[in-house]
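Lab notes, practical 5.
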Amino acid sequence: MKSLTILTLLLSSLISGLFSQVVNNSLIITDNTSIGVDTLWFGLDSAATDGIDATLGEYQLPPPPPTGIFDCRFVGEDISIPQMGQGMSLDYRQGTSIYVGNRLHELKFQKGTGASVTLRWNLPSGITGKLTDLVGGVIVNDTMVGNGNVNITNGAINKLYMRIYYNLAPPPPPAPRLILPLNGAVCVSLTPLLDWADTTSALYYRVEVSTSPAFTTVADSATSVNSQYTIPSGKLLNNTLYYWHAASVGVGGSSWSSSRSFTTTTVSFSAVPQLLTPKDDSTGISLTPLLDWNNLTGAISYKVEISVDSLFSSIADSATTTLSQYTISAGKLSIGTTYYWRVFGKNACNTSSPSVVWSFTTIVNPPPAPRLILPLNGAACVSLTPLLDWADTTGAINYRVEVSTSPTFATIADSATITNSQYTVPVGKLLNNTLYYWHAASVNAGGSSWSTSRSFTTTTVILPNPPVLFQPINGAIAQPLTPTLIWSKLTGAIRYFVQLSTDSTFSVITDSATVTDSFYTVPSGKLANHVVYYWRVTGKNTCNTSPTTNTWHFETEYEGIEQISNIIPKEFKLYNNYPNPFNPITRIPFDIPRKSFVSLKIWDIMGREIMTLINEEMHAGKYEYEFYAPSISSGIYFYRLESSDYVSIKRMILLK
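Output from the prediction step:
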């Protein structure tokens, strides 16, 4: 069976190679034994007939073998094709690659040693079949689709009808995709280009244009091998809504696109608007004039332009109106100015050429009063040469400004006529700390308009020099924690600002105050013992501040220590305390000849250190330490003064 199948496949390949039919299908018939199998071939060819076509490889078979030997063939005995004679293994009928219809074949077979006969087929897409017995399909009635088979077990059946149905016509090409005009397009030309995308397998295209969305009437139609079409002149009307669609046409039929719409352009203008008023070269025209012109046939609106030059490079006003007149609104025109104007007619799609250009000149009215800007009303500390500033005024040719000490301007301190909207009062016109009034006027050929007045007060005297510091003297030491700082009075100053800091840059302020006199006592709690403080002072009046003084510094006193003289001793020395014995206060004098690190400590009679009175760097000087011992018991004690190159010990007695 396997070898016979291989032989069948080889024969199939040979037949396919020798004869290239339009449609070539195989039908394998077997009695289900190893030797009872054969392949019949059928199909379509444009040159085929119902008889034997030798050019297609058809030939008449020898007579069927005796009963008991397997055999199968195509015959024409019962389908009225006697030309097939004793039968054929190939049976091709007339048909093309796009054939749609059916062809009837008659099969004749006999079993060999097998118990049944099986027919197998593998039909491609577009081809189906029907197997029936010769008595109307009572026993055999099987549909042939794709890959299938039927098994005949009834030994009385040795013939079948095989009707093959062909549906080889290709499908119609896809509908084209419309490109231009866009759907809903307006102002489209009367000879528009209709454009759509190329469609695969289309042989040509059909296009239709109609005023009806159902295309019941056609304004234009055409057949084109290209995917675009230009509508000829005379087919379309102005300002009309049209619908269009296109169809791809191929072997399998045609496919229409969905429809699009467009509206054609409106009529073009052959004339221009005619201007009426104001007449060309008119003068003394209002700043809100009515511009009037004739109606233009075909126009549904008008565009009017007003410019300060005849080339309309600088537009003062423009508008679109449905009326044949336009009133220029306030604020658009300037007084005493020549303007040029023109009008265009418009409809939905077109604009006419402009009218002739006419001109007019506006009236000359006094300009509005200027708006004062600087100085602000009521401003104080104003310079003696202030800048007087006001807003520009439309229509002003120049400005007039006046300054007075009187709100009625009965006397004038200064006045000027200028073309700019600001004025600087010259040196020598104004006095210090004086109240002045000022106003400005806009001036042109039509007259002048004065602003409301404003007032300002000039600056107080300048404080060119700083105060002079007196005490504590610069570098003073052992100052109390509430020192009084004293400096010179400053001419023109009405108060002083004093600052204290622990650094010369005054990055951290320890204390500050504003005082009206030339001294300041630092309040308790502001300063700390044995700290260097820097101080400075500025003088102030209503408007000005003097330069700051040079920075001086002083150092506060030690806690419990008093510097008893500014005389610098020649050597270290520790003196006897007094009183001695004491209860509970005694004073311990000592000398320091130079800045040194010094310690002063108390010891008991057992040699134990019980208290450190001083342990820090000290300046040169003569000092006394007030030793207060309320919590120490009665007894003999020693006090010791020590520096890097000096040590001295004294004895004292505490009696309670």
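Observations recorded by the TA: The chain has six domains: 2-167, 178-264, 275-362, 372-458, 469-556, 564-654. The radius of gyration is 63 Å.
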